Amino acid sequence: MQAVNVSTTIRVSDATRQRVAELAAATGRRMQTIVDEAVTAYARTLFWESFEASYAQIADDPER
After folding, report:
1. Which InterPro entries match (predicted)?
2. Taking the domains of the chain in order of start, what are their residue ranges?
3. What totals of helices (H) and strands (E) does the chain contain, helices first?
């Protein structure tokens, strides 16, 4: 089965739109790609922050 790319509109500030446009121009990449990769990177960051916090909590627990 082939994946279907669906696009939608999201609201961002004018400043954010300008920054994405500048990044796209500087890298030769599509604005959609810049946003997709930024969201993926942010999700990865949140995952690892949560993982590290949980690990620290377990490591600090003398019962484990």
Report:
1. Ribbon_hlx_hlx
2. 14-59
3. 2, 0
CA distances 60 to 6, 17, 31, 51, 53, Å, are 45, 43, 43, 14, 11
pLDDT band of residue 1 (cuts 50, 70, 90) is low
CA 36 to mean position of chain CA atoms:
7
Q: What's the token pair of residue 56? A: 């620290």
Model confidence pLDDT, tens digit, residues 5-59 = 788 999 999 999 999 999 999 999 999 999 999 999 999 999 999 999 998 888 8
Q: Measured between alpha carbons, how far is residue 45 from residues 1, 6, 28, 49 in Å?
A: 31, 25, 25, 6
Q: Which residues contact 35 (CB under 8 A, 6 or more apart)?
A: 20
AA identity, residue 17: R
